[in-house]
Amino acid sequence: MTIDSWQARIKAGAARCARLGIRGSGSKAFCAPPLSHDVIDTRDHRGIVTYEPEELVIVVRCGTPLAEVESAMAGEGQMLAFEPPHFGPGATIGGAVAAGLSGPRRPYTGALRDFVLGAKLIDGKGDLLAFGGRVMKNVAGFDVSRLLAGSFGTLGIITEVAFKCLPRPQQEQTRVLELDADAAIAMMNRCYAQAMPITASTWVGGMLHLRFGGADPAVRAAVGRVGGEVLANASEWWADWREQRHPFFSPEVNGLPLQRVACRASAPFADLAQGHAHQAIEWGGALRWLRAPLVTQVMIAQWARHAGGHAHVVRGAPSRAEAFTAIPAPLVAIAQRLKQSFDPYAVFPSL
Amino acid sequence: MAPSTFLDALVRLLPVAAVKTTVEEMRPFECDGLSMYRALPMCVALPESEAQVAAVLALCHAHRVPVVPRGAGTGLSGGALPDARALLLSTARLTRIHGIDRDACTARVDPGVRNLAISAAAAVHDLYYAPDPSSQIACTIGGNVAENSGGVHCLKYGLTVHNVRKLRVALMTGEIVEIGTESLDGTTPGGYDLLALMVGSEGLLGIVTEVTVKLTPRPALAQVAMASFPSTEAAGAAVGAILAAGIIPAGLEMMDRIATAAVEDFVHAGYDLDAEAILLCESDGTTEEVADEMKRIAEILRRGGATDIRVSRNEEERLRYWSGRKNAFPATGRISPDYYCMDGTIPRRELPRVLGEIQRLSRHYGLRCANVFHAGDGNLHPLIMFDANVAGETERAEAFGAEILELCVEVGGTITGEHGVGIEKIDQMCVQFSPRELTRMHEIKRAFDPAELLNPGKAVPTLHRCAEFGRMRVGLGRPLPFPDLERY
Ligand SMILES: Cc1cc2nc3c(=O)[nH]c(=O)nc-3n(C[C@H](O)[C@H](O)[C@H](O)COP(=O)(O)OP(=O)(O)OC[C@H]3O[C@@H](n4cnc5c(N)ncnc54)[C@H](O)[C@@H]3O)c2cc1C
């Protein structure tokens, strides 16, 4: 039994103050805390436990490839509605939850953590715990399963996760419009505020890409209203964007670090590096990507705070600590006590 | 009586009328919506600003006085039940709407703002706040956050947790922290998703002093279909068929015959009284979308054995069809001197078994029970009818309720879908969670509130309490799960 052996390894590790890392395929290592050489490979625990399309619930073991889950759901006309980035062919479901990343559909359907119904985890004491469940609504006790989303393997091994599933839109179509940044932000805001059936929005290289989805008549009415050109190979384009394979993200293009800025969706465009930055905008205006030199980091973070969000360096920071901006002391204290509770012997890495 | 040094300091912090200490003044705060539990607090504070909330908390922290937060007091699990040793902190005077960003579609409000008041303020922009508990005219957004409240439109639009972007929170020490952001990220890079912990934390982790919510654009059109079914099984199966067909209706609710009879008498919604169950299924969106979806829904309902299907022809009719469902609790209150509202969630396929068992228990306890059901997401509200003036009936109603909750856990569900644990379901937490899981929850509580002064005795049972409960259950021949794990 994988679970038993993992529990034993963690208990043994805790007893001799050893360090253990948790890893799936390693596809998101670039944004995760560095691991010790002693690593638990979550791919030893894989498979779909149950999938009940009528209940809108799927329960999956941590080491199951994301692609396998997505294809099982596609077979039933359903999807993981947060459209998670894979960042590699072997990406696992456990890694997706631990990284907590959501893709282009996020502003319109919700984030990864919004779809987590329950989770099991082995903590740093080797105890197997279960929180949440397999039902849509559950407010018994603190919502620990959602806390695990984005916890990057610092609180324990997420062994199993239950997700809410959603139907795939019957139809999708993407339109492309040439607009400047402010006009693009205004258009993205409008598409949402006017209840259009929008499912993704990205402005890059002066072109706004709007994806609409739903029942045929609704999509037809929406694209009729926004105009623009139909994007051929749209699903490929969105997959490339989500996976950061689009030229905007390519390291060769300009060699600049990639900074991610979360902000109010209505925040006006800001030239954050006096012309030295390339910028792309997505998530209805609430996410700004910058290719900008590290010297701009402080200024960008300041702007982000002012715009109701935060900024960090996703690729190209000299160290993990330097990628982030400081978190206020009382919140750091809470996070430390949480970590201490789940992992008192510091078997796992820290955030 | 409160120690006078504490009270002296308190009255210096707040306006005169914001501190209540006499029995007459405190009586209105003695219970929430679960009125079988009542107690008077040590005193009541009604701060008028975030700074006053923080000051009151810091003072309580210094004097080690526990604090029970209270919104509108509509909670159904006793979460806001006062404690004689504690200060009751009411958000009733924190009612400002700070602003609505109509481009980002968000609103920033005080915790004491009523749920419906947010939608009313956003209406000029054709926006609204989507989660719609039936109590929305009275309950506060702070209470909604504390309970992670839902409503009849949550299947499509999500629960409170899906509609809150950011909170300002006063910790027990009086420190103010911001949790979440105005962007779409709940978490700050390098931090944990504390927003997920705060929502549904029943006042145990901090006092919410400001909420930034997501607003939803008002759909061009909404229509509801009302379908009659000859059995609850058939109605339940139709629900599954709708979801399996790839439709997520804006609302999908079921009521059994006892419930429809009760509400029809009260609101005259036009419900079919011969049906064993009725389903309300709402579609919203553009005119084209609704027409298309309604056609598919009606077809599925017909194939599922509906004996009558009526689709609302205008807004007035739509609201009338919903009024019955939304008034199910007060309507039950009219046909019975008292009622006790349960709130378990089950995997939907278990509905026939659970309803059958509830019927059996109803006969066993000699108490009537109506069922209203957030059918789309499996959240069941059995309404147990009793008369508190008849000796033994309250105890029978509670025992009946406890058995329903444990049944929900047994079939793979949970003891509470949206009303919270509070004081009411605290023993059933011992059935749903192992001692280790409960210990973890106590540690989470201490991570936010090391002095353990916020809403003590609620939501998470002590292991000692579980041990007592376990001993009682052994006597009844129904031992708790995890008997091998230590409880002390
Ligand atoms: C007729 C009726 C119908 C209902 N229908 C629904 C429904 O459809 N869906 C649903 O989910 N619920 C429903 N409820 C339950 C109830 O209305 C909700 O739980 C609501 O969110 C409680 O809000 P409140 O302001 O009344 O909170 P209160 O009852 O005052 O408090 C609830 C809990 O929140 C805590 N709290 C309150 N304010 C704060 C704050 N600012 N910071 C921290 N903690 C705080 C309290 O300590 C307590 O634990 C219904 C209740 C009634 C009476």
* Shape descriptor of chain B: globular
Query: Biggest sheet of chain B, open or closed, and with what strands and sense?
Result: 7 strands, antiparallel
**SSE arrangement of chain A, N to C:** HEEEEHEHHEEHEEEHEEHEHHEEEHEHH
Number of helices of chain A: 12
Q: Please, could you describe this protein's structure?
A:
The complex is a heterodimer of chains A (351) and B (488). Chain A is of the alpha+beta class and 351 residues long. Helices cover 30% and strands 25% of the residues of chain A. Chain A has helices spanning 2-15, 66-74, 93-99, 106-109, 144-148, 181-193, 216-226, 234-242, 251-254, 297-306, 320-323, 329-342; strands at 21-23, 39-41, 48-52, 57-61, 78-79, 116-123, 128-132, 156-164, 166-167, 171-178, 198-204, 207-214, 229-230, 258-262, 278-282, 287-291, 310-315. Chain B is an alpha+beta fold and 488 residues long. In chain B, the strands form four sheets. A seven-stranded antiparallel beta sheet of chain B has the order 15-12-14-13-17-18-16, with helices on both faces. A five-stranded antiparallel beta sheet of chain B has the order 5-6-10-8-9. The longest helix of chain B is centred in the C-terminal third of the chain and has 18 residues, at 393-410. The mean pLDDT of chain B is 95. Classes of the chains: A alpha+beta (351), B alpha+beta (488). At the A-B interface, strand 7, helix 5, strand 9, helix 6 and helix 7 of A face strand 9, helix 8, helix 9, helix 11 and helix 17 of B. Bound molecules: flavin-adenine dinucleotide. Residues 32-33, 68-76, 79-80, 91, 111, 133-135, 139-140, 142-144, 146-147, 149-151, 202-203, 207-208, 329, 418-419, 455 of chain B line the site of flavin-adenine dinucleotide. The site of flavin-adenine dinucleotide (FAD) has 36 residues of chain B, from strand 3, helix 5 and strand 10.
